[in-house]
Amino acid sequence: MKNSRLLDDPVRSLYVQVPFCPERCDYCSIPVSVRPERADGYIKALSIEKERIRSRVDLGKVETLYLGGGTPTVLSPGLFSDLIDLLREDLPPLKEVTTESRPDTLDRPMLEMLEKKGVTRLSIGMETVSSVQMAFLGRTSCSYDVVRMIESVRNSFSGQISMDFIIGGEGYDSGKFRTVAGTLLEAGLDHLSAYPLTLENRTVLTLRETRGELPDSMEDDAAEAWRIATSDLRSMGWKQYEVANFSRNPHTVCRHNLSVWKGDSYLGMGAGAHQRVLSVRSENVHSHLSYESRLNLGETPIEHLEKLTGEQLFLETIYTNARLSYGFPKAWLDERISPYALSGFLSRMIDHRWIEEKELDRERIVFTPEGWIWLDSLMGEISVLVEG
Q1: Short-list 34, 18, 270, 272, CA closest to 139
Q2: Which of 11, 191, 208, 248 supports an S-S bond with 162, CB 3.0-4.6 Å?
Q3: Dihedral sign from CA coordinates of 41, 60, 160, 372
């Protein structure tokens, strides 16, 4: 991509995987431990990996830190405080610090610690407001009153609050979700993510599906329910800035994820973490025990590593930018696709209302919500045109 900013950006974001949870949910495929009291050794391994990274990557331009899971807030407040101190050491002042969580781990001591340590954004995995759907997803806790949850968190935490929901599956109620989403907007929730239920490998739900215990149409039904849910969110005033992510206003988007979607280099630490620095992408070993063992023995935690070709990096970045509400410059395609082939492709996309015609007049490719539904297929066509 001749005139792009993709190949020379410094690292701007750091993701840290904290693979501990109160329980293993039936829909989740992430390897996690339900023994958070054993996390001391894991944090020691993180400190070793950070030193390895610091020796070869400039951390001076990092702007965001994201602690994902698992459920990082399942750690004790003291241990989590130590982890944040470890991670922020040697980093410049950060524009955003996010931690994932779930409602049953957010008591007052935890929230006060997050506030004290400068966490600016709390992402809460609510998943559902239905007790039936909660049980279907494999969570033993009951559903929560989301408005009371916001009020409770704000009593001790001044940062932004985001909530994640899973659309579809047994017990999902589209009408109830619509009502709750509107109430959350009125109550001041900063950010909302909505994901269609999918069957991932090595999960209880997938096992149930192979046994014939789930409807064959469950994923298709969830996809349709998600289409309706996202339409409802837009109509009530939520700003859909990415396929599955909605903000109250431009100031409450997730800076960390936005940086990754735009194509900036990003670092990943921890078991199963991914990273891409310029054109080199790697993935750590998934087992947290193997991760700890490798680092304690002075070995690399990286299990997979690949050097992306210019074409692979181009297509990957086009895809992630296509998921954003403002798309990407048409010039990116002009540089790789012949004028005749590109003109025909874009004309067909306009005819189907898959891209915004007004934005194309401004030399940008911006997908419509309908176009997002077909994005994987359309990206396949773009790939063929690039190779041609």
Answers
A1: 34
A2: 191
A3: negative
User: What number of other Cβ atoms are within 10 A of residue 308's Cβ?
Assistant: 16
Give dist(CA 206, CA 219) in Å, integer: 11
Going from the C-alpha of 256 to that of each of 16, 178, 273, 374, the distances in angstroms are 12, 27, 15, 26
What pLDDT is stored for residue 9 in this prediction?
66
161-180 burial: b if 16+ Cβ within 10 Å, else e = bbbbbbbbbebbeeeebbeb
Which two structure tokens, joined as six digits, stand for 105? 């781990």
CA distances to 44, 276, 290 from 293, rounded to whole Å, are 11, 23, 5
Cα–Cα distances in angstroms (integers) from residue 269 to residues 66, 125, 301, in the given order: 10, 21, 9
Domain spans, the chain: 13-260, 309-388
Calpha distance 108→114 (Å, rounded): 10
* Rounded to 5°, angle at Cα 52 from 46 and 55: 140
CA–CA separation, 176 vs 284, rounded Å? 40
Mind listing the pLDDT tens digit for each residue in 2-14? 434 333 468 999 9
Decide: helix, strand or coil at residue 75.
Answer: coil
DSSP letter at 267 equals E
Phi, psi at residue 241, to the nearest 5°? -95, -10
Q: How confident is the model over 218-261, as pLDDT tens digits? A: 999 999 999 999 999 999 999 999 999 999 999 999 999 999 99
In the chain, alpha helices (H): 40-54, 77-88, 108-116, 131-136, 146-154, 174-187, 204-210, 218-235, 255-262, 288-296, 310-322, 331-334, 339-351, 357-361, 369-373, 375-387
In this predicted structure, the answer to whether residue 280 has a pLDDT above a threshold of 70 is yes
For residue 126, which phi and psi values (nearest 5 degrees)?
-70, -40
- Residue 305 burial (C-beta neighbours within 10 Å; 0-12, 13-18, 19+): exposed
Identify the CATH assignment for 13-260 out of 3.40.50.2000, 3.80.30.20, 1.10.3720.10, 3.30.1600.10.
3.80.30.20
Determine how β-strand 121-127 pairs with β-strand 96-101. parallel
> What backbone torsions phi and psi does residue 104 show, to the nearest 5 degrees?
-75, 0
